[in-house]
User: Which sequence fits this backbone?
């Protein structure tokens, strides 16, 4: 069976990297030589151009000095870190009590209990037993973040833009975590997660349309003007996540 | 020193060994800078490269050897920081002049090099985002197919295909 052109191209690029000559490389595939030759010349030209981009020697030396001057951070063995985190989490939950955790569930970023809500989510993520469970939980957290943005935007006295922005950053964070986890998911797990996200996406699309159509309230005196959420940014990331799960 | 595998250097760096950190820094600084500089404006390239290494230094203790190569982890950090930069500034990526500073080159050579780089950057702009990213990761950062696939969350076949299409398009644009 003849090799695919992509395969041969990659092999030739590897040979060139090892120092082989273009013509030597093409001699292994004379029937594809005409097609491959210009691609290899293009690759060499690109490689040559990129190789000329160099960090300035002063910058290089300064950054190295800075890095090596940073205080050392030694790590505990992984099992110790996990146990320490688990014990600390249990302790915090015990001290705060279930009622506090429950009360924090509906809090918004400006509320004193909001850090408890985030801590509870981190504990849930830490105890999720598999990449699939973690990815699904991240997907559910997207829903929570969108709900928070919707509530913040809908308030009569809009919240400080920094809270909305921070929530959007967290939302992006959940999506990016799913990207990182995607290569570790089985095919059926990807299908399930994709299905969940697509269902949610339809709901979120509606919410988003509402948010975009409602004019922002006028800023109160000496209040920072609220900014509309950067919907386009995370919506693109949202679509990309669904695309990644397709593969 | 060369016989020590990269994994051992990483393990030592995780424990706070400065020699190991210095080794990893020297191994990746050019690649990371080249990748960042190929995506952002020159004035920002140093700042972002610095952030990549500072963040890597801080996050290394949490790096786990679980099928993701260190290079993919490091370049995923770089990629995210570049994406954040672009998002925060809402700047479309433009390519003006890039740092091509090796002092051993004479001005004529430098002007020629600059033109060569600009030509490639403009050509890259005409590719799809995925094709651009594959070309940058493979040819500016020098990453393998596997490492590129891990960063972009795609399979190796998809990367090979993107690479082929990208080179075909670049060939046409550059008239090679």
Assistant:
């Amino acid at each position: 069976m003849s090799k695919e052109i992509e395969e041969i191209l990659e092999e030739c690029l590897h040979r060139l990297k090892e120092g082989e000559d273009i013509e030597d490389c093409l001699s292994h595939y004379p029937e594809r030589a005409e097609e491959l030759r210009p691609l290899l010349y293009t690759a060499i030209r690109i490689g040559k151009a990129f190789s000329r981009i160099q960090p300035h020697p002063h910058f290089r030396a300064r950054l190295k000095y800075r890095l090596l001057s940073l205080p050392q951070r030694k790590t505990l063995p992984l099992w110790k870190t996990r146990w320490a985190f688990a014990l600390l989490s249990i302790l915090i939950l015990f001290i705060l009590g279930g009622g506090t955790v429950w009360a924090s569930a509906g809090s918004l970023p400006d509320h004193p209990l909001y850090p408890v809500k985030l801590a509870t989510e981190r504990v849930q993520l830490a105890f999720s037993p598999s990449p699939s469970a973690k990815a699904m939980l991240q997907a559910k957290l997207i829903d929570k973040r969108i709900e928070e943005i919707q509530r913040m935007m809908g308030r009569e006295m809009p919240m400080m833009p920094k809270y909305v922005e921070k929530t959007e950053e967290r939302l992006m964070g959940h999506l990016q975590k799913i990207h990182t986890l995607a290569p570790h998911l089985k095919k059926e797990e990807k299908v399930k997660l994709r299905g969940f996200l697509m269902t949610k996406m339809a709901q979120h699309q509606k919410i988003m349309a509402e948010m975009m159509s409602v004019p922002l309230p006028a800023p109160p005196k000496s209040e920072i003007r609220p900014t509309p959420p950067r919907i386009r940014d995370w919506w693109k990331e949202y679509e990309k996540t669904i695309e990644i799960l397709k593969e | 020193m060369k016989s020590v595998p990269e994994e051992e250097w990483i393990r030592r760096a995780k424990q706070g060994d400065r020699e190991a950190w210095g080794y990893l820094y020297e191994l990746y600084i050019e690649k990371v800078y080249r990748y960042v500089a190929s995506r952002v404006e020159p004035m920002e390239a140093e700042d972002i490269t610095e952030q990549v290494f500072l963040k890597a230094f801080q996050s290394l203790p949490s790096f786990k050897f679980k099928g993701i190569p260190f290079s993919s982890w490091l370049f995923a950090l770089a990629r995210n920081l570049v994406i954040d930069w672009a998002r925060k500034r809402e700047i479309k990526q433009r390519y003006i002049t890039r740092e091509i500073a090796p002092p051993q080159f004479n001005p004529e050579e430098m002007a020629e090099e600059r033109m060569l780089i600009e030509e490639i950057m403009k050509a890259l702009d005409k590719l799809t985002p995925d094709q651009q990213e594959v070309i940058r990761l493979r040819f500016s950062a020098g990453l393998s197919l596997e490492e590129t696939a891990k960063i972009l969350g795609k399979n190796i076949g998809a990367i090979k295909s993107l690479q082929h299409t990208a080179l075909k398009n670049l060939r046409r644009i550059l008239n090679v």
About this structure: The helical segments of chain B are 6-14, 18-37, 42-59, 70-89, 107-125, 129-140, 145-152, 156-174. Confidence is low (pLDDT under 50) at residues 91-105 of chain B.
